[in-house]
Queue: 2 jobs
Job 1
Amino acid sequence: MTLLDGKSLSLQIQDTLQSIITKLPSAPKLVVLLVGDDPASHAYVGMKAKACERVGIVGEVLRFSHDVEESEILAHIERLNRDTSVHGLLVQLPLPSHINTTKILESISPHKDVDGFHPLNVGRIQCNTQIDRAFAPATPLGVMRLLEHYHIDVKGKNVAIIGASNIVGKPLAALMNNACATTSLCHIHTKDISTYTRAADIICVGVGKPNLIGADMVQEGAIVIDIGINRLESGALVGDVEFEAVAPKCSFITPVPGGVGPMTIASLLENTLKAYRLLESSATP
Ligand code: GUN
């Protein structure tokens, strides 16, 4: 069994980004909008800002109270869309319930949409068209990068994805399909997910339920990608996979923490550099 070490690959990618960015004529800039005081969102945004600083991306965080009006957020996005010094723009999710998340995400310029949540980018990733101008969400992109780094070719493989969110499961299924895998996208109404996981060469799970995937659900030699992050009452961070029981059956498995999480950060930084290059060369669609 080999551990898929996302932490060290993420740092390696960040070193490469840093050496590229120091040679650019100006610094790329990422602006993050953070609404409310959800502790997990604050922690994620803190990690994003720190990583920006590490590679030479200017990271700016705009904080809003939980009762901010939707129109105020939209006004900021319009301003940032027009601001030519800004290359990447994202709104940390989830948003408070009085704010229409779809409306906010659709208002972000697709050319600055480094989260890949705008319908233009979602469509391009789904259709596998204009890929060099499209942004895929950072977590699925990080999963694909991690597999590539370990020379795991997904072509022709059976992939079971557990969790069909717009942020992770659905875009991951699209990237897997684009790479010629056979993908099963399981969700809350799937009758028996073990039917799919037992037949899978690669299992990707991101649901937010500790111990969802046990050893009896995994075939010998499987590759297991754990995208879940759960904080136990003890304070420990665990994924969705019963790691101790499942790991001995796997050919490859990600640890939590230190697997997919750091790859998400690296992919966001890569997307920001991509946005910079496209915007600075005016190569918008
Ligand atoms: N909340 C959880 N994951 C993400 C993400 O990748 N991007 C944003 N904007 N919010 C999130």
Note: Residues 32 and 143 are 22 Å apart (CA to CA).
Job 2
Amino acid sequence: MDQIVVRGGQRLKGRIPISGAKNAALTLLPCALLTDEPLTLRNLPRLADVDGFGHLLNQLGCSTTIEGSRPEDFGRVMTARATTLTSTVAPYDIVRKMRASILVLGPLLARAGEATVSLPGGCAIGNRPIDLHLKALEAFGAEIELASGYVKASAPGGRLAGGKFTFPVVSVGATENAVMAAVLAKGTCVLENAAREPEIVDLCNCLVAMGAQIDGIGSETLTIEGVDRLHGATYRVMADRIEAGSYACAAVITEGDVELVGAKAAEMEATLAALREAGATVEEVKGGIRVAMSGRAQPVTLSTSPYPGFATDMQAQFMAMATLGTGASLFTETIFENRYMHVPELARMGCDIDVRGRSAVVRGVDALVGAPVMATDLRASMSLIIAGLAARGETQVNRVYHLDRGYERLEEKLQAVGADIERISAG
Ligand code: EPZ
């Protein structure tokens, strides 16, 4: 397994290109299943999960062709085309490696009237149930059966009727599956308390470009008028607001000055507010966002919540930033039940963090010391890199396959702004 080695002490200075958003790409790719025409996605990030999703689409009979990049994009162009589906089954061996595979459930149900998808199971940060995905689909007329670890869904008469569902808990993935199922329904589908993340807006905008009729995009109530068919489209994946926020935290902890090229301030207001609370200079510049810092971070009090609140995907990175800050910072993780796996690893570097249930108190220390640490999940891995960038000496981050799922060309991007970082391939 590859290892990433970071030698701390360098201030990050310069421009960091922000890639297409992983969590947008993973819900845009399954849209190709909704039509027999080609869907071309621009600015697709080079990530393990994107490649994995491409393989899953191929298993279902959807061709995927990677082209080069457009000059104005950092990502690649992929054209996906499901002329006819050869399967409606997403098997366990694929789904268990990539939870986002569950996002083929809605599109397969809409296109083929049936779908058999392995239950994704839990992961490091929580047990990740999919009950809300299934309840929303049932509200639209689907018949759902759970058997031998698989979800078997079908639409009576081959087409969802329509209906209304109010989410008791905001769920990004369940909202995505429900929207993709609804666009080809016979009638109207209404979702209340829907997730409002920018990635959902990206999904809805792409579906509209394909001929879907969706009202309330960006709000908590989505009204989808089913249509008989969708056509192909060309759509550009939004910039990754979590990648951008992650590098912003790296800039702050190293007292650097970076420009996040391609990042959109309007999509990350809570993150930018938290950076300013920590004492960073944050300003919109042409085509991106500048983040600069001198001195130690001020204490922050952050509680994760659905968009537009402070993103759970930013919690670990801000916690790493706070470890060298002044005073005590307080974090509360309200979305996932086990999203402090980075804490024991950060503690190995000399951080002072006290976890009490869903909350964690981080007391700033004067110095961190590099150490061998273990990546446990995607965002936890990034928090270890962030701490390593400011630690004295060398930090070896192991199991970096977690990082490769969500951060494209991480070491290249950091080297380009002065970080002393390298990947050691284990062969
Ligand atoms: C998406 O996961 C993201 N993944 C996650 O990013 C992100 O942390 C999460 O949304 C929250 O923003 C992708 O987009 C691929 P949820 P998702 O459904 O859809 C509970 C990363 O690091 N819930 O919004 O799985 C659930 O347990 C990843 O990039 C149910 O109870 O998250 C959680 O407590 C990690 N039943 C809460 O809702 C359900 O059916 C929010 O989960 C579904 C969810």
Note: The chain has a mean pLDDT of 96.
